[in-house]
Amino acid sequence: MMQGPEEKVTPIDTDFAKQQTAKMIKEHRQAIFRRRRLGLLFIIALTIFGFVGFNLYQDQQKVNELQAIKKEAVADQKVLADNVADLKTEVKQLQDEDYVAKLARSRFFYSEDGETIYPLPGDKQTDKTDEQVQKALENTHSSTTTEK
User: Fold this and answer.
1) Which parts of 95-147 fold into alpha helices (H)?
2) What does the DSSP assignment read for 23-92?
């Protein structure tokens, strides 16, 4: 019958052999303890890095969102600044009596003494005025017929 490699080895029962065996068992236990401690530290570090990474990702998403809001606000501010500039220009123009008179003549067909206005067909202002005149005539016509 064949014997395995362990059966062929006989331990030596000397004090030195026992000390070496005890020393080897102690070193083996220390190595196992170090590996476990290193594994635990690795898991703790991985957990910390995961948590920090997740927070960093969320913060980056918030920064991107705030940058988009900022771009929109800057664009709105530019449009409003342009509107303010236009309104300031219009206010200055409306303080000029000649400009107001010219505006009244062009929009509402007011005339100075001795002036005659000839509205051109197809003019948007003329079309609106014609519609307003037509409605006014209809209102007066309907009110006179109901009074009779």
Assistant:
1) 97-108, 124-147
2) HHHHHHHHHHHHHHHHHHHHHHHHHHHHHHHHHHHHHHHHHHHHHHHHHHHHHHHHHHHHHHHHHHHHHH
Distances 25 to 16, 31, 52, 111 between C-alpha atoms, Å: 14, 10, 40, 117
> Tokens 């009779």 correspond to what residue?
148
The residue type of 136 is A
d(CA 143, CA 44): 90
**pTM, 2 dp:** 0.45
Structure tokens at 129: 């005025």
* Closest to 21 in 3D by CA, of 36, 11, 10, 35: 11
pLDDT digits (tens, 9 = 90+) for 10-49: 777 889 989 999 999 999 999 999 999 999 999 999 999 9
The answer to whether the beta carbons of residues 121 and 128 sit under 8 Å apart is no
